[in-house]
Amino acid sequence: MNILKNILFYISVPKCACCGERLLKNELALCKVCKEKYNNLVQFNCSICSKIYSECTCTNRYLDAHFVHKHIKVFRYFQEDKTDETTPPTNALIYSLKQDHRADVLEFLTNEIVRAIRASVSNPESYVFTSVPRRKAAIVEYGFDHAELLARQVAKKLGAKYLKTGYSLAKRAQKKAANSSERITNVKFKLRNPKLDLSSKNVILIDDIVTTGASMGYMATLLKGAGAKAITAASIAIAYRDRSTRFHTGDRFSPK
Ligand SMILES: [Zn+2]
Ligand SMILES: [Zn+2]
Predict the structure, then answer these.
(1) Ligand nearest 15 Cα, by number?
(2) What would the mean pLDDT of 14-18 be, rounded to a whole number?
(3) Residues ≥6 apart with Cβ < 8 Å to 170
(4) What are the pLDDT digits (tens) for 172-188?
(5) Which is nearest to 74 in space by CA: 96, 56, 92, 89?
(6) Which ligand is nearest to the CA of 22?
(7) Does domain 11-238 have CATH number 3.40.50.970?
(8) Structural domain boundaries in the chain
(9) pLDDT bucket at 130, cuts 50 / 70 / 90
(10) How far is the CA of 51 from the centre of ligand 2 (A)?
């Protein structure tokens, strides 16, 4: 047998996104042990509605004040305990999505968020899907916008349309704000690009993780300005406490 072929086979064998064990053929993104841990972690309940997260649509106050009255999510992102060396598989999947560009991780998380959307939305194919854009610096660092990849896959799986809106709407808002004293929230955009006209459309806005709701809320405000009827947020994880909003946006695209 060709030695090079063997080497290629070995290095291309996918490893568990959490513990690094080699995966078996029927395993996707996580090994059996990590998948079991994952299955336990997604059983946590929302402290407001008491449903498991993947069936809960509660928002936090920040989102609720920014046109998002329904927030679909899959699990909670855990603040890591510094004394514990092991990363929970839920967190590991988020890191991997951000950094690794792995098709299996993207597929795993797409399936999870699709299932959560189907549980709370009756005709998802009628929605327009879009995503919270990465900061340009983060795209340069990693080479891709993972929230966009995720949103495109989710839309495809649900038979819906993906529309890239982020930078065009943000740029328009900045111009408008520079030209007038109007606050962004009061601006009704005059849209020259009819593709970005969301009049009477219901929108599902996707991100990987909602830390405070600041980026998601800002994006929702822009979508509202572009005419969107109702905006539903959908993220893989939430990191805020159910009733508090902390202001730390990390690599998120944030209102300045
Ligand atoms: Zn594992
Ligand atoms: Zn809830």
Answers:
(1) 1
(2) 93
(3) 133, 222, 253
(4) 777 766 665 554 444 44
(5) 56
(6) 1
(7) no
(8) 11-238
(9) very high
(10) 6
